[in-house]
Design brief:
The chain is mainly alpha-helical. It is built from eight helices and two strands. The chain is 70% helix and 4% strand. The chain starts with a helix and ends in an 8-residue tail after the last strand.
């Protein structure tokens, strides 16, 4: 129940931040119509929300997240939050891209945008976010887990790289949107460094696996205990 309430909160706050607070100002030197103004603001807002949610996606997935220590919640709970936050991030990215694609076709003067680096990298990032969601369904994880993990890491790195260049190639560093990408990278790097440190601390261990039946195996690692 608590997990459901928290996930509902994540959806509600993202929906409110996406949909509320639009004001149409006409005449306007930037937007020819009120519809275009709303669509541009919607596209910009969802792009910002996608980037601001990106670090949370990485944080919830980490095995050494500080939230595990602060909240004492289980890793299973944070993996559940990771999946839902990833869905929100991908939805924002998809809306951002689709709305700008519609604007580009609806307004004159956007033909050259399709060939610019920022547009290409943004398209790559959106595709990576979308594929990450589609490739993370349970049947794929169960059948080819190692392939899922490797593709997950590669696509996430490519999504971060594409997002960064989408922002910097368009705005340079004026608005600071790229800082969300740097924060996500920093969280991922921190988790990896802590993993290596813990591995170095415990050293190399040998596991002894015993076949029990068709569904269960017993794993014994000398010096290691676990609570089921």
């Amino acid at each position: 129940r608590g997990q459901g309430i928290f996930i509902a909160y994540l959806f509600v706050i993202n929906i409110v931040l996406t949909a509320a607070g639009y004001t149409v100002l006409l005449p306007n030197q930037w937007y020819p119509t009120g519809k275009i103004q709303i669509l541009r603001e919607l596209a910009n807002r969802t792009g910002i929300l996608a980037m601001s949610n990106f670090p949370l996606v990485i944080l919830y997935a980490g095995r050494n997240s500080i939230l595990l220590w602060v909240t004492n919640w289980s890793r299973t709970t944070f993996l559940l939050l990771h999946r839902w936050m990833a869905l929100l991030c991908a939805l924002h990215a998809a809306i951002h891209s689709l709305v700008y694609l519609y604007i580009a076709h609806a307004q004159e003067g956007w033909d050259t945008e399709f060939t610019l680096p920022y547009w290409i990298w943004g398209t790559i990032a959106t595709l990576c976010f979308s594929i990450l969601i589609l490739a993370s369904v349970r049947p794929i994880r169960e059948v080819a887990y190692e392939l899922f993990i490797i593709s997950h890491i590669v696509l996430t790195i490519l999504a971060a790289y594409g997002s960064y260049h989408h922002i910097v190639d368009k705005y340079t560093t004026v608005y600071g949107y790229q800082n969300w990408v740097w924060l996500a990278i920093a969280l991922w790097a921190f988790d990896r460094v802590i993993r290596l440190a813990r591995m170095a601390r415990h050293g190399v261990r040998r596991a002894f696996i015993t076949h029990i039946d068709d569904e269960y195996y017993r794993v014994d690692i000398p010096g290691i205990t676990a609570v089921g």
